[in-house]
Amino acid sequence: MLEVPVYNTEGKQIETMSISDEAFGTRVNTALLKQAVVGYHANKRQGTVGTKSRGMVQGSTKKLFRQKGTGNARRGSARTNVLRGGGVAFAKQRRDFRKKMPQKMRIAAWKTAILAKILGNDLSVVDGLACEAPKTSQMAKLLDNLSINRSCLLALHERDANIYLSSRNLQDLTVRTAEELNAFDIATRQKMLITREAMEMLMGQED
Length: 207
Hints:
207 residues; Ribosomal Protein L4, Chain: A; 2 domains; 6 strands; elongated
């Protein structure tokens, strides 16, 4: 049974939340976490680059001049890659870099990422987070009250326009809803801040 501190918006710990072993597991699966992060990077690659090889370039296949006796470096046809206008050596072709990951593995990956944050004392639960109007100073004050001065991921139960607008000018703060969480966002932020409602939602989510 793990325990996570619960803070109010003033930065004072009001209680601790107990987390069962079934919610996020008991051991961090580093191999699965790495696979998820590598897959996230691979899926962002477009793979649309394309260059022409010497077989794709238009031009005669006739040898430009005889092999010996001219004093020049030996040449092939005009399509050779050593001449301007010729093809490219080892030409790049379009390809799909995507790495497929089953849904159960994706869920297990972000759960083990959350477990790593809990075990490293890098996850905190905040109670009563709300913004009546978009104010960056209000979110900056919250982070200051919680002594968070590093990259942070804020997880919400549902979309809140005021919180999003209040956070977008804070460079090291990323806001996601519980449904949008992924292993990459969790693992690459040094701190994680989650609302009580979002934590209860994640704890109740089944594989």
